[in-house]
Amino acid sequence: MTRTEGMLFEPLSDDPIAAAVHDFDPAAIAGGALARGELTLEIRPEAIVAVCQFLKREQGFVRLSSITGVDRHPAEPRFEVVYHLHSLQPERRLRLKCRLQGEAPEIDSVTPVWRGADWYERETFDLFGVRFRNHPCLRRILLPDDWEGHPLRKDYAITGTRV
Amino acid sequence: MLLNMGPQHPSTHGVLRLELELDGESIVDCRPEIGYLHTGIEKEFEVKTYQQAVTLTDRVDYLAPLSNNLCYCLAVERLLELEVPPRAQWTRVMLTELTRIASHLVWLGTHAMDVGAMTVFLYCFREREEILRLFEMFSGQRMMTSYFRIGGLALEPPRGWRERVESFIQTIDSHIDEYEDLLTENRIWKQRTRGVGQMALEDLLDWGVTGPMLRAAGLAWDIRKAQPYSGYERFDFEVPVETASDVYARYLVRIAEMRQSARIVRQAMEGMPEGPWKADAPGIVLPDREKMKTQMEALIYHFKIVTEGFRVPAGEVYQAIESPRGELACYVVSDGGPKPFRVHLRTPSFGNLQAVPAMVRGALIADVIAALGSVDFVLGDTDR
After folding, report:
1. Is A79 at the interface with chain B, CB within 8 A?
2. 3-class SS at B323?
3. H or E stretch including A95?
4. Does the distance separating the beta carbons of A115 and B43 come in below 8 Å?
């Protein structure tokens, strides 16, 4: 993914959504890509709630399809939180990405924007250990409450016995 | 009073626990607890080669295995930029629509039984059994089909499939009439379902609900029309819509969807193109048995695909399809290796189930049963 500092790079400047987000807050975009017909915008983590609010209210992204994570371990920043947004009128989809550093990543919850973000954030917390600030009830959802570790992290062993 | 409904309650169809906070008979609050069926499928994807991982997708939504096969295969095929031959695409459409009918039949049978209409269940499972026999004919398996593979189909469609599918599809409309005779104008059914589980369209969208529930709230959004895949743009069908957004409207939408699916199956059968049933992509698609035994090159490809798999160009795709339950999407991230770096399944049951508390607050316990049934969730699909 190409990284830029506050400026939209060439292939994205034609895209109306990328341009709109850029106009809304030039500092929010940290990069982006248009590949296989899918637009990805990398958003600075501190701007995620404001950008989502803007996209829902002004750009018609009424649906949040899903939130999930990707662990790029051992690369840093290690975690990606991936948001898939969907607008019905006109029909279009958008992927937002936030990169988070370190062992105990944190980001603001988007539950104030879409209530449906609730379970997706809990799942991402459960399986990746990403904490969502301001989440109404951030606890494990798929695994038991006393489970240790976050299984979808790349350094979580799937074979062998626990010592 | 606090009441646990589930995890072993018959109306939760699997293992779902609802913590109900009650004031007499009415629901003050409802907290669903899921995860009882979590099997770590997304982690498992990361240690399987792309082709092996098809078998995992069957086990996600076990009432619609072919929809899951399709969604995953389409995603990987987009990463590979692989073109699937028309005959395979048509067969895929035909079988996923049969899957939709089979899945809706299970939903209708169990939903009606929950609400007290026992007979419907027996009728529905009679027809569903016939569809499962068709699946067995195609793939050798009734439920865990794995019939769609990256690049096409696992096997050539069997001899005599056309007659079997035709004899099924000729009678399905009259069978659907039978179910409707039992329910649509049934006074008890209407009393139990009308005005129950109502929810405004804006709330449904906000909670991440998809599929028939949205269409029962007046939104004509169907991914088969909005973002066609696997050649759906060439089929002629309608998207059934209702506006009441209650349990009864959801029933009407799914009944109408079965009829539309039968229509698509008929078109797919009549217009089935000739030609290969898998892509000509050596190194990705397994060679024919005959070639493997007579040609050195084919043998090498076979060996390599089976032992180390094939490499997929680095990148990511999000492929959404309209499963019987709503938006099923597969987010595949590749790092250029022979195994997926990350696969996320955005399953419709997970999103739909989330809306249940908002749907039942203030209702009676008996209405919870009807409302849950109208969500049509599968716990395997929810918990993965």
Report:
1. no
2. strand
3. strand A92-100
4. no
